[in-house]
Amino acid sequence: MRIRLEGSDLPGRRPGAAADRLRLHNVHVGVQRKAEVVDRIPADTAEARWTFEVTSREVDGLLDVGGPWVHGRPGARFLYLSWGAVDGDAFAMFRRAKLMFGDIPTDVLRAAHDGAGTLVGRLGLTDAAGEPACARVRPVWTVEA
Questions:
Q1: What one-character DSSP code corresponds to residue 54?
Q2: Count H helices, E strands: the chain?
Q3: In this structure, are strands 55-59 and 62-66 parallel, antiparallel, or unpaired?
Q4: pLDDT tens-digit profile of 97-108?
Q5: pLDDT band for position 60 (cuts 50, 70, 90)
Q6: Which residue of 97, 121, 141, 144 shows the fewest CB atoms closer than 10 Å?
Q7: What is the reported pTM?
Q8: pLDDT (tens digit, 9 = 90+) per residue, 4-49?
Q9: What is the pairing mode between strands 27-33 and 135-136?
Q10: Neighbours of 20 (CB within 10 A)
């Protein structure tokens, strides 16, 4: 199953001290593949986009997802978007956003599993305080051809 995450409203694009701090520390956000954060994008980019494949299968009438991008145990699977400061090749993670598969409407997830198109999650990447979005975030999920 193909997944595309589209992030908007990155915190480093806003005015103010919090955004200045993010830019000063070269903060990036990327998707976590196993323990590594890949496809990192600067926090002051206009938008972020990640596309990757996960496996999906039916187990006892329920859909389960897996693969190196997927974390958590069956029934509580999720994706991570991880924030960190970049210094050369080093990435010092300081915050993560968790995108739960259980938050995806069943009909949308099933359509993606059945091959109707790409599962697309759209989300803002700045929280109410102007900081990088973290903890459990809830994208708007659709399936697009």
A1: -
A2: 2, 11
A3: antiparallel
A4: 999 999 999 999
A5: confident
A6: 144
A7: 0.96
A8: 999 999 999 999 999 999 999 999 999 999 999 999 999 999 999 9
A9: unpaired
A10: 13
